[in-house]
C-alpha cells in the first residue's frame, strides 16, 4: 500500500473471486463487458499519450524517468477519492511504462493478458504497484518535475513541448479519473490539483541540469519478470537518437508557428519581409556579391501579454534556420538578471548571461528599467555599457532583443547614442482585439479538450469587448484570457460537483455560468469593474 498527499491509503481494487481463489490462465475471462470497454479506452489513451511523448524520448532518453515519476504521482492523485487504485488505473500506467521503457514483456501482459487471466493480472498489479512506489520514493507528492524541464527546454530551444505534452498528460488523467464510471467532488478536486501542478514551473539553470537531477533520483531498472506469455524478459532500451533537423525544416516550422499565432498581422508581415531580405543576403554572400550591412538586434514595443516573448523565441529559430545563428535558442532576462547591488557584480552577471546566449538570442524584458528615473547610485548604466561592448565583440554570434512599453522603450533607446545606433529595427505589438481574445480563449479550450456553447461564446465576446473598450497600457491581453480560462474550468468543476451523472459532453462543455468575470480584474489593467455590465445567459 501507499499514501496519497492527503494521507489516504491506496490499495489494489480486487474482485472478490480473485481474492478468494485466483483462476488459471485457461479459465474464461473474469472481467465484465463494461470493464473490458474501459480497459480498451485506457489502452487507447495510453498509446495516444505515448505518441505525444515520443519526440521527447527521441531527443533525450533521460526524459523517460521524468515522465514516469510524474505520471506515478498523477495516477496516485487520481485514486485519491476512493483511497485505492483500480485494476484499470494500474493497467494504464503499466502500458505507458512499457511503451516508454520499450519493455515488451510488460506491454504483452498489459495489452494481451490482463483480462484473460486473473493470475497474470494480480501478478502485474503487484509489479505496477512496486513501480509506482519506486518512482515516487522520497518525492514530494504535490510537485511535478517534467513541466519545469519542458518549460526550460522551450525557452532554450524555441520549441513548444510544454503545451503539447502537458495537455496530453491532463487528458490521460481525465480518462483515468473516469475509469470507474463515477466522478465525484474529490475526483474533480484531484483534476483541478493536477491541472495546477502541470502548470507550475520552477526556474532551472538549464533543462539539461533538470534531466541530470532526475537521473540522480530515478530508481534503477527492475529485474526482468517471468512472463507467462513468453517466459522471457526484455531489458529496457534507450530511445534512438534522431537525425538533427535541417535548417530548412527549422525555418519552415518557425514561420508556420508564427503564422498560426492569433492576430499580430503587422508583426507577421514585418518578419516575413525581414526573412526574405535575409534569404537574399545569404544568396548574395554565397555568390561573392556585395552585401548590405544589417543589424538583427531589435526593439519590441507594446503592452504585456501581446506575444513579444513568443515572437522573440521564433525569431531565434528563424535566424538559426537562415544560418545567421548556430543555435537560435532564447535566454530571457530582465533588470534583476543583469544588475547587482555591489561594485563588480553587475559585470559578472551580464557576462554570464551573454555567454549563455551566444549563438542565440538574449531577450531583455522591461529593458527601460535599466535606467530608472531616479538612478542615484545605480549599476544599470554599467550593465548597458557592457551589453554595448559585447554586442560589438560578438556581432556575428549574438542577437539582443529589448522589450517593454512603447513610450518607455522609445525614451530608453533615445537616451543613449550607443543604443540608438545599434537598435534601429522596431516591432510594434498592439492590444489584442475582442475577437482575437476570444480566439485565444477558444484555442486554449481546444488544447485542453473543452468547448463553448453559443451562449458562452456570446458572453465572452461581450466581456472581451468591454475590457478592450476600457483598456489602458497595462491591460494584460492574452494573460487575461489565460487567467479567465483557468478560473473558468475551476468554476466548472464546482458546478459539476453536485451532479450525479457525468459524461464526456458534460465534462468538456463550458457554460455561461462557468465564466467568472470578477477573477479577471487583477490582470486586466485599471478598469472600472463596477461599470462593467456583462449579461448572464
Please outline the major beta sheet. Answer: 5 strands, parallel
Report the structural category: mainly alpha
Form type? globular
Uncertain residue segments: 1-34, 226-242, 522-537
User: Helicity level, as a percent range?
Assistant: 55-70%
How much of the sequence lies in strands comes to: 5-15%
What is the radius of gyration computed over CA atoms, rounded to a whole number of angstroms? 27 Å
Kindly state the mean pLDDT as a whole number?
A: 80
Strand arrangement, major sheet: 4-5-6-3-7
How many angstroms does the end-to-end distance come to? 48 Å
Counting DSSP E segments of at least 2 residues, the number of strands comes to 9
Our count of helices gives 22
Structural description of this entry:
This protein is mostly helical. The chain has 22 helices and nine strands. A hairpin with a 5-residue loop joins strand 1 (2-3) and strand 2. The chain is globular, with a radius of gyration of 27 Å.
Short recap of the structure:
By secondary structure, this protein is mainly alpha-helical. It is built from 22 helices and 9 strands.
Name its key features.
537 residues, mainly alpha, five-stranded parallel sheet, 55% helix, globular, disordered N terminus, disordered C terminus
Amino acid at each position: 500500500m501507499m499514501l496519497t498527499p492527503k494521507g489516504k491509503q491506496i490499495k489494489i481494487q480486487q474482485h472478490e473471486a480473485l481474492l478468494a481463489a485466483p483462476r488459471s490462465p485457461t479459465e474464461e475471462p473474469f472481467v465484465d463487458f463494461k470493464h473490458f470497454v474501459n480497459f480498451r479506452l485506457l489502452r487507447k489513451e495510453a498509446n495516444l499519450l505515448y505518441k505525444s511523448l515520443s519526440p521527447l524520448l527521441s531527443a533525450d532518453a533521460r526524459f523517460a524517468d521524468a515522465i514516469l515519476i510524474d505520471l506515478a504521482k498523477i495516477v496516485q492523485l487520481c485514486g485519491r477519492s476512493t483511497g485505492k487504485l483500480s485494476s484499470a488505473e494500474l493497467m494504464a500506467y503499466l502500458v505507458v511504462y512499457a511503451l516508454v521503457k520499450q519493455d515488451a514483456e510488460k506491454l504483452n501482459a498489459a495489452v494481451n493478458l490482463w483480462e484473460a487471466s486473473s493470475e497474470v493480472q494480480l501478478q502485474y498489479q503487484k509489479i505496477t504497484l512496486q513501480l509506482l512506489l519506486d518512482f515516487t520514493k522520497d518525492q514530494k507528492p504535490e510537485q511535478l518535475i517534467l513541466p519545469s524541464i519542458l518549460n526550460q527546454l522551450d525557452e532554450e530551444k524555441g520549441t513548444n513541448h510544454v503545451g503539447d505534452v502537458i495537455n496530453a498528460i491532463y487528458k490521460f488523467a481525465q480518462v483515468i479519473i473516469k475509469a470507474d464510471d463515477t466522478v465525484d467532488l474529490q475526483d474533480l478536486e484531484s483534476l483541478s490539483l493536477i491541472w495546477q501542478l502541470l502548470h507550475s514551473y520552477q526556474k532551472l539553470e538549464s533543462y539539461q541540469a533538470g534531466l541530470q537531477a532526475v537521473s540522480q533520483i530515478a530508481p534503477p531498472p527492475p529485474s526482468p519478470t517471468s512472463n507467462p506469455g513468453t517466459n522471457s524478459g526484455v531489458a529496457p532500451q534507450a530511445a534512438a537518437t534522431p537525425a538533427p533537423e535541417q535548417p530548412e525544416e527549422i525555418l519552415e516550422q518557425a514561420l508556420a508557428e508564427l503564422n498560426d499565432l492569433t492576430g499580430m498581422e503587422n508583426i507577421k508581415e514585418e518578419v516575413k519581409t525581414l526573412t526574405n531580405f535575409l534569404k537574399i543576403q545569404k544568396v548574395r554572400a554565397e555568390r561573392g556579391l556585395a552585401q548590405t550591412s544589417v543589424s538583427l538586434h531589435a526593439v519590441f514595443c507594446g503592452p504585456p501579454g501581446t506575444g513579444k516573448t513568443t515572437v522573440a523565441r521564433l525569431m531565434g529559430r528563424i535566424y538559426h534556420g537562415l544560418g545567421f545563428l548556430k543555435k537560435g535558442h532564447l535566454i530571457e532576462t530582465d533588470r534583476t538578471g543583469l544588475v547587482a547591488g555591489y561594485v563588480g557584480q553587475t559585470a559578472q552577471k551580464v557576462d554570464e548571461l551573454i555567454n549563455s546566449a551566444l549563438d542565440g538570442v538574449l531577450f531583455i524584458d522591461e529593458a527601460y528599467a535599466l535606467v530608472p528615473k531616479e538612478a542615484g547610485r545605480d549599476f544599470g548604466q554599467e550593465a548597458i555599457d557592457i551589453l554595448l561592448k559585447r554586442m560589438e565583440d560578438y556581432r556575428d554570434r549574438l542577437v539582443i532583443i529589448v522589450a517593454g512599453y512603447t513610450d518607455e522603450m522609445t525614451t530608453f533607446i533615445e537616451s543613449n547614442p550607443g543604443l540608438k545606433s545599434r537598435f534601429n529595427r522596431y516591432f510594434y505589438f498592439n492590444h489584442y482585439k475582442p475577437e482575437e481574445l476570444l480566439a485565444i480563449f477558444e484555442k486554449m479550450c481546444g488544447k485542453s479538450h473543452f468547448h463553448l456553447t453559443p451562449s458562452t461564446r456570446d458572453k465572452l465576446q461581450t466581456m472581451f469587448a468591454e475590457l478592450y473598450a476600457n483598456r489602458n497600457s497595462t491591460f494584460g491581453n492574452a494573460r487575461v484570457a489565460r487567467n479567465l480560462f483557468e478560473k473558468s474550468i475551476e468554476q466548472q468543476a464546482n458546478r459539476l460537483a453536485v451532479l450525479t451523472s457525468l459524461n464526456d459532453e458534460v465534462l468538456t462543455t463550458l457554460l455561461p455560468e462557468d465564466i467568472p468575470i470578477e477573477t479577471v480584474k487583477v490582470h486586466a489593467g485599471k478598469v472600472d469593474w463596477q461599470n462593467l455590465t456583462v449579461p448572464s445567459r
